[in-house]
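A student in our group prepared the protein record below, which I am reviewing. Here is the record exactly as it was handed to me.
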Amino acid sequence: MMKLLQNTEKRIIFYHNQAPKETKNKQTSEEGMKSVIGFVARMTMVMLVAAMFLSPAASRGQNLKCFILTPPEQLLEGVKQVAITDFGVTTSFQADEEPGKERKGLLGLIEKAAESGKGQQRFSDSGTKLADMMIAHLLQEKRGIEEVGSGFLGLKSKEGKSFQNGARTNVFGVVERGRLQQVLNELQLGQSGAVNEAQAAQVGQLLGVDAILTGNLSISAEDRWIKEERQDKDKKKYQVDCNKRIANVSATIRIIKVETGQVIGSKQSHHKEEKKKCKGDWGDLPTPEAQVEECLKAISEELADYFAPHFELQKLDMAKLEGEKYKRFHETAKNALDRYDIDTAYLQYAAVAEQDPYNHAAQFNLGVLYDAVGDYKHAQEKYVMAAKLKSKEDKYTKAQARVAKQLAFWEKLNAMGIFIQERKFEISTEQVQAASIPKIQVAGSSSDRVEIKAEPSPASQTLVRVPGEIELEVVQDAGDWYKVKLLDGREGFIAKRNAKMLK
């Protein structure tokens, strides 16, 4: 396989090198092409090797990936209504002239001076943009839930899933933008951007909110030209002109409680976007404005996460059911979790716990499912029991700490009038007992027919001929035969050579 890929790469490069080269100016383009070819070949090799060695069964761990409502770094107790002012903005922009296109003389100096003045005004609307982005985050009901990667190398995607009914991220009421601006104008603060503590308290009282969110924004952007050293196919070094664009954005937010005028929370955030394109490279550079926009998006999410809850994708690891006896339950639960069928998974673990109440893995996994739906009290009970049964299991200890934090978080959310809708696993005793019954799968395909005898003997009367692939409950192990329960309720015998015990 390795040799095949290497030869393929060599042939591609060989045919590329046979193309006529008109001038030396094409060196950079050729080097870029070779770089792309090499990258594609290496990625192809990685994917093929992974496909060979990572079977679906081997690549899937037993876990449940779901979105959990995550507490913020700073929970604003007693705050239900907020207003967000525009951020105060300071900006700087520096740009080099492209090599070979430098402007000279008096006219050039005048043009550069004019552009420098405009540069100081670039990004001046960013304070409003950042405030708008944060307002949008606070109004989202399911902020953080998105599609998740699945399949080979995560190249497919499926809808993200949360089992916490009633959990939401829009926990604050946000004052409408026009109303806030009206009050700021009345107080002659409309053009000042961020406000201080005293002003915030005054604005908040007029708006009837519990807290004012205000802050400052610093933007520094550069558009530079640099030299970069490269090698051609003969390993001869040469230099190429490269355009490098950098955007550095820093923001500070302060949360001021209107009742006291005190700062009850503050957070700094920084993000950098850096892109480079050399002459002869493919593609285009994003504009400085686009880079700053990307920085603002990242910063707005981080600042919103600081004081507002958000959904976070978590991988809740399950404990493996040990022993051949429980292999069937383990596989059934694992497949159910892959398709988000937590009720079927719960039934499997409940059936094991019914047979063996001291099975630590079954107790822990029941706790994980309670954890996923937000029933943290029952989750804690199961985690504690699992830890008592296997005290040295680090996974069990960490789960207890995680759920204790969630319990404290939800107590505060409950005080704000936000509750998780209780999610009950509707599993009857009969279902648990039925899940515990061993089963066989009839050999052959659905078009085949296998005899079910009245007695465990080939000479016995044939009760019915059943299709292959169907599953039947085992009533008794009778030597070379299984006594099984048919779908119509009758009982009969099937030769073991025609059946496979499901484990």
User: Anything to note?
Assistant: Residues 91 and 454 are 89 Å apart (CA to CA). Residues 1-29, 49-61 have pLDDT under 50 and may be disordered. The longest helix spans residues 27-53.
